[in-house]
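Help!! Second protein's tokens look totally different from the first
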Amino acid sequence: MSKKTLFLILILPFALAISFFAVSEYLVTKVKADIQNISWEYKNNEAYALSEGEVLLDATPILADGEEDVDATLTWEVKNLDEKEDAHASIRFDGKNYYLVLESIGNVLVSVTNSSGNISKSFNVKIYEGGVVSMNTKRLRSQNSIEGFDYYGEYDFLGTKEIPASFYLDVTVKPIDVMDYITIETSSNVEYNALTGKVTILSSGDAYIRYKSKEESYVETEEYDFKVIEDGYNVYNYNDLLNCTNKSDAGKIVCLQANLESFNNTYNSDLTKIDEVTELFGNYNPKTKKYSFNKEVYHFESTYNTNFIDQYNEKNSDKISKELIAGIHIQKDFYGNGYIINEHNLTYPTKTLSTDDYLVALGEDDLFRGPLPYVIIGTNGLPIIKAYGQDNVGFYVDGDNITLRDVYFKNCNYSSTLENNDYTGTVVELNGDNIKVLNSHLTSGRVVLRSYSNKNTIIENTLMEKGREFIARIGSNEFVGIDTTKQIEFSFKGQDYSYSYDEFFIDQNKDNWNLNRISAALLKTSYVTVNEEDKNLSDSDRLVLARILNGILSDTSLVMENNTPIYKNEITFRDCVFYQSGLFSIGLDTIFNGPYMFDGSPVKGVLQNLQGDGLVIPNKVSGTNYPSILHLEGETEFYDYKSIDQVNLSCLIDTTYLNQTINDILGSQQENKLTIDDFFPVKIILDRRCKEEGYYYTDSGTNYVNTPFALFGGGINPSLIDTENLSNKDKLIQNIKLDIYEEVLTKTTSDQDQTIVVKGANVLKKCVPMALGFEPFDLMTYKDGYLFNEAIPIQKLKDRAQ
């Protein structure tokens, strides 16, 4: 037998186990398709005479490329902007068109929203009689804003030169003699030229331009209020943004004044601009049809556990870089004004894999190529499996005391095929204490928000949606290895045992209940030698042993002080909305901590014979993770229902070489392909628990479940989810435990008279906890169909921000 074949046969089960999730063929997972924007011709402020009676309303839903089966229905709403009970206007639908019916003098807000409720635009309407003054900025403001208030910086860029900031107003006066009744006033920190409409900023602070009426009964006073941010810089294009971020050593405060979009969202088919407030994200060369991102992105070293990468690089010539890239490096406050920054041109794969399913794949020059490896089985050039660590980032928030306000960040155009976000990276990663994200919209990436080892993070009144794996991933970078000075003591089957570190972890005495003997007994397979007396252990004995070993490998006393957990990461979600994840809305992470991660147990002897092929045995790459604390407050809600088939567990590993390997081993007997559920039965356990306990909500014969949180298992996870100040906490069902080891121990069928596929699946099931650890996963879910099929309340977010 060749060394390669031996490698494949002996290592594959552990490769799959270390991978955490795997598949035997490329999966296509579809979720509900949404529009990605709304187009219309309205200014921010419109004025209609009451005598007009009604006004036709017109808006067009914008679909992402390749999206066809989309509910593009738009719904119009109107509400008073004053305290009067009687409506100034209403909406009329004649079966084909919507109309704004003008009913009385006053100011109203007109909004249009898609069927899912996550995309919305609005404009103000002044209904008048006699005369009116209406003010807009000449360059229209974003109509996607959640906060609805405008921020400007003290400075503009002229190339790379900094100049005093200015902008223009467009004032409509009807009839013109209304100006006889108007006095123009301004705040002291701006100058205003009424003839040209130019506003020049003099200093920071609250500001206004006011057309004050001398006779309110004839014409109403009109005022434009805004705020000038001290040391802030107005960003009107991609290079302005680079000047404030990637090209600035310390960073500059950004006041965004334009959308920065993908190519197809910036230009029409004839290459004319779609609108005046949208610019291209990136510097594009029309001759080469390429961008210059490789010269512009920010590079940083991974902050996560890279111990295995270090061990791999010591023994291999094909070094693995620990470097990651960020599209935008944010070091100062960021005022988004509701404008969109879409990094699709940078993050999205450029190669088409399948036109039928609209699947994409990496092109040769693509910079975003997936996360760094946490552990590899095989070599970096030819991996059987990579377990993923930290990923590339769209917006890297790097530093303490930074606030993102009214930002609309997305890593890519929307795709209802989850697999198309495999390489798109994390939308927003936080790296600092006292960071705030307020009144914002974060969307479309592999993970939407990642926060590890940060103190006092606050996410407030923010919509987060469309994550390939999790919407938010929470954890800590720090962990503690095993205390080598501590005596290891435990009881098993009525007998007490006490071992030194060396006796338990290093020595191979078969008579001692050491690491190698326990892990071999727990695996119970012909792949490794098991003591004869251990073969007859009962399932309950093995469960006890698993808990004993987990407590030794994950010693929570090392991450506690005075019996209180030492939280290295603290984050609060207040009045937030979560929508459409591939796995679960929020994942509270912990590192894998099974015996395989310590030293390759229980197959370390086999592995040592194969190291010459580039294989690296894990050497204490894991340990006990410091915990996180997650606070959920106010009206934080999760609109994340999915069928059990849509719980996609294939997204956290690289399976480039996996299919070929399975074919090499199983050959012609691979009639029934292995799926992820054959060896990592999370969906099977979740499905059974939901059926047994009545957690499913059934609609039209299909079962749906909404799982807002997943407390990762494997290694012991002492993280805490605090719902004390959550208004709808009574809708949550807590502590749905998914015990992977118990499942595979008690539910695995006998190998006798089974095919090689079934036998292989049985081995894989037993191998998973050897890498992962033995702690159950802990989930929460909504009960009684709470929020099922309800639209995202983005208007509620806007109301709260006012």
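Here's the second one for comparison:
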Amino acid sequence: MTLAARSENAALSTGAAALLERTPALRRKVGSDGPELLAAGAREVISVLERVISTGKSEGVLLWPNRLDGVAIFHALAALNRLENADARGFASLYFPWSQNVGATQRTMLTDRDVLVRSGMLPLQRVYLNRNDRSYPYLMALHSLKHIGTGGKSDKRTKRALERDPLLIHPSLFEITPQLGIIAEEPKGYQEQFLRRLRRHTWIGECSDHLEAVSDPLKAPFFMFGVHSDAVRIALWRQAGLDPKQGGRRPDVILLDLTRRARNRLGSDGWRQRVAKFCATAGDLYGDIAPPILALTDDAFVLQTLRWETLKRYDVRRGASPDNKSPAGALVVLTPSTDLLSTAAIEPGTVPEIVVEAYGGEILSFSDFGLKLRRRLMDAGDDELASAVTDGMHAVQNLIGLPGYPRQLMDFAEANYERFECQAILARYDRLAPRGKIKAALQQGLAGANQNALAEFLAALDKLFAAAESNNPGCELFDKCLLRAARSEERTLIVFSSELLRGFAEWRIEEDSSLAEIQNHLDSKILLVDRREAVEVLETAGDKEIDRIVFMEPGADDLLSMLTLSRLPKALLVLAHLARVESTLRRTRVLLQLDGIEKVRSRLEAAASELERVLAGKKIDLPDLDAAPPLPRLGTLDLTAIGAPGSGRTRILSTSGGFKIRAFDGSEFARYDPDALQVFSRCAASDLRQGDQICVFTPDFVESAREKLHLAAKASDILLLYHRDVADAASRLPGVDLAGKAQALRDRILAIDPALQLPGLQSIRSWIEVTDLLKVARETVRPQAPRVRRHFVCMMKALGISDDVARHYWDLGIFWTRSMRIRNGAAFHQVFMGILIDPHGTASCLPADRKKEIWQIYETAENHVLTVTANEREVGRT
């Protein structure tokens, strides 16, 4: 692009988002009450796009904490924003990676007919006498919308159509945005899509020359070329009309979509190579006139790769950057919602007290070891074995970080999922499959120079799995957190990193007798939620303020995104292992380096400061991996058998439970600080004293492994029916107040089943204190019922409610609402079966809204704690 052309574009870009900032121009396809303004974050992205076009310099944008729906839609929005100057400011974009689904968001977003006609009239008046202008056919097509239903033989048909669909008059963004999908076969044309729903209701349907011109890449004022990941070939681009040397059209900007869904389309491990190939192809085709790139992502680390590698090299090659030292421009666009029409905003808030309690002294070193081994295997061309190493790391991390034991997870899955679903869910915790691949490779000597390192990894894998089975640190941490919250006067919100783990934790509390006292405090002093539910709870807390949030092993993005909420409690406690702490700190530092983060900068800086404090003095160097001790078993634990000669004198440590540990003076242990919930520091064996608590562990490891299942927790209609029936039945119980009625109910339940172990009267009272819930919105109401089915059945009998109705309420009310946090396809299957059996009785139970999303989280690995009862030199040994 010449300097003159860039200056012209810069002048035209003044007030880039003017139309969409001042004019409510968009409508929702469902539930629209009128035209709405585009969300502030989306308007900012359009401004960045205009800047990239005008300056000719590539930029990266991090959409955070939420990605906006559909990156391809920003071409359509930018075109709409330029509509008043369509005769002078037409533009083309090249979108990558394209798929047939990229137009979905454009199809669900409608453009207000009156705004289109009014905005298009301005340039139409300027070009009306010059019908050869490229914008003329497009503007005339939009102008035809003004004449819908104004007479003629089709008038009655149009009126009937508008009665059926009043929003028909408003075309979707997809219907007014000419575009072409370039694939390995025949390109996906667009001609039949332009104003598709409205052609029969206006005269434009009879103007084939206008419709052909609008869909022609060379003639349309606005056009988007989409390139499929399998169509990155110059020959295909030329065939689609993208080569200006052969009469084609040079795009003004490249839209590079690297949000999670797009990366998945490219391959989670191969997106870098595919993007590099795409950029190289664009450079080969256009040379010095290659268009700038606007890259959008929802991952901070991906943005770092873009600005320091992909975009920087691309701009240097095409001459838009003077050197190869500075990164490409980048910024954060704060997005409080994925909704393009959301009015939500992120505003500065008070900085809460942030405390991080970390554990796992050798996790960082082992994580480095595992990641480096994986990289060495990939460099050697053994991608399959590298994948097995990654899978093994993920499986053991997931198991050790559970708020329970692996065997309990198996029981939970069998009780709450169909058999085929159990296999899919438990595959994330399966260490046997990758272990089998690794062991076979070792036996056949396939690892080459990495044979010894792979053998060490396999040994650590087995020992960590044994740790999860014998003394799971995730379980201990969870139990300790619950007990502390139950004995506190504060109202505590315990946030899990996934709905699956939140459901598993709730199930454990119901099933584990050692946690019986916790049941009395659930939904009152203690609330178990996932991150999405945490947002809802904080927004709707009202008079029941949350005093403290406890994050259980939060993913980095999950934790940091919570800091963007305007309303937070005064205290935040983060419980995580050191590898997660380090990963969160790196992500925080990336955010703090970027423009656009000012509104939440103070909170991020406070988090970074605390994370740095926790990491100080706790990172163990990689060589310590060689001296990783085996896990404790009954008898003597020998840490010297794997030590290097000359490692010092040996000593015997006696510990609680009858364990004896044989170690060198310099053997390192993770000492536990009993004043904190879970804090460890490095300590040599010779420095341990009687009464110290230590973690005896093999090398822990962590690699980023996120997997998050999200089903939106919405209360069903039948849950409100249940509360209504319980309220009516409770009103007939003897007793002058709720306390008396709760006692009467308890007596009746024990008369039905004297063997029941019932919770306290306060919990029983909460079962019948449901009148106020009848007024609560369905999206926020929660089951206020017994947590054990046996208790529920007896309570319903005591209230005089039939067994059939009680079963219906439990299966499709209580359990359905709770199960939505822990189930996926099985829950849908259950309800659909219910519809087949009893369509009238079960149809009303289905929630109005339901979303399913994969959120990936980091899981943990850790050790187990023992108390030192004696520490003595071993006699006769050196």
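Reply: Different proteins will give different token patterns, so don't panic. The first helix runs from residue 3 to 12.
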